[in-house]
Structure formats: C-alpha cells, structure tokens
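Recap slide: Deoxyribose-phosphate aldolase, sequence and predicted structure.
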Amino acid sequence: MSISPTPTAPAVAAVIDHTLLKPEATAADVAALVSEAEELGTYSVCVSPSMLPITVPARLKVAAVCGFPSGKHTSAVKAAEAAEAVRNGADEIDMVIDVGAAKEGAFDRVQADIAAVRAAAPAPTVLKVIIESAALTDHEIVEVCRAAVAADADFVKTSTGFHPAGGASVHAVELMHRTVRDAGLQVKASGGVRTMEQAVAMMAAGATRLGVSGSRALLTSAGGGDTTY
C-alpha cells in the first residue's frame, strides 16, 4: 500500500476496523458503534459473533472474531463459529490461532487450524489470522505468517488486544509485512493503536488495516481512546 508520509484523518479512517469486543457490550452499544463508524468513515465494524446479525449502511463492512480471545478452541469449533458468523452477515473473520501450538513449534497444527476456518468461510469472505505477535519470537512470527500464507488467509493480524504480553509494534508489523507481502497477504495492526502518530507508524511499516476501538479519539486528537478491544 502506498501512503503519503502524513496520511489525512479520512485516509486513516478508511483503513480502520472500528471495534467493540468488550464482554459487557449490548445491542445498543453495537448500534452506537455502527452509527459512529458511519460518521467517522471507517472501513468496517468488528464485533463479537453473538452480536450478529446487525444492520449497517451498504458501504460498511462487518467483521466478527473467531476463537476469541484465547485461540484455545478446537478447529472444529472455530470453523463452526466462523461459518455461523458468515451466515449472519459477517464479511470478514478475525480468527485467533492456538498460540501455544506456535510456542511449541507445531506450525503444521497452526496451518491446519487456519485451513479449517478458511474452508468454513471461503472467499469472498476475508480471513484475518490473529497471531498475538507480542507473545512470539521473531522466528515464531515468521513461521506463523508462513502457515497463514499456506492456508490461504488474506491477512495476518498482530493482536487481540487482550493478551498481557501487549499489542502491536512497528517491529512486528514490519516483520509480518516482509514475510507475507510477496504472497499477496496484508497486515492488520491491532492492540494499543490509540493515536494518529501510532496509526501512521503502523501504516508506514506495512499495515493496510488497523483495529481500533477509540477511533474518534485517534482521529480527532493527539491521543487517548479506549484501551480494551
């Protein structure tokens, strides 16, 4: 993705998945999220699968998470969750890998897990693979990204925003981008992206999508915003 050194607020908004994944979220909260996303011009809204179906303007995409936030669901459960979300109107699925499998070096299991979800939610559904990059070594990040390529995913995504190890980093985004770009996959930076400065840095590192809960604060001020998404 080619971007200017200083993207405008509308350009940043256009790559944001405006996100609400708090367990206490209500239908009214999701309706407010959709309204705010339309006002701000974000790319999509991202919600928990139990909140679907939702009504959105025609231009706004709907993303739902899968195996969230631990990734410790079986592949069959993740596949069923993804398929149900698509039936209920999700255009995109953000799935969490089994991070423990990656830490064990069982990258074949990681690939099989992703492939199960891909089979349950085939194109044109967009599949993003959440790898919890802050919990992985550089070697593990590269191998998990290669597994996502082999399983025909569309994006690799840094973080859930719920892991104690932390969220997105410029280093992780750069490494992920270098690993997947030749295969045509994209990178989503998520977890702790709260300011325009951080958003621009992630985009410059190769992110073509941003996961943000405090989108208004990010787009209208130098900082602030919700810390949990």
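The chain is about 40% helix and 15% strand.
The longest strand covers residues 61-66.
(End of recap.)
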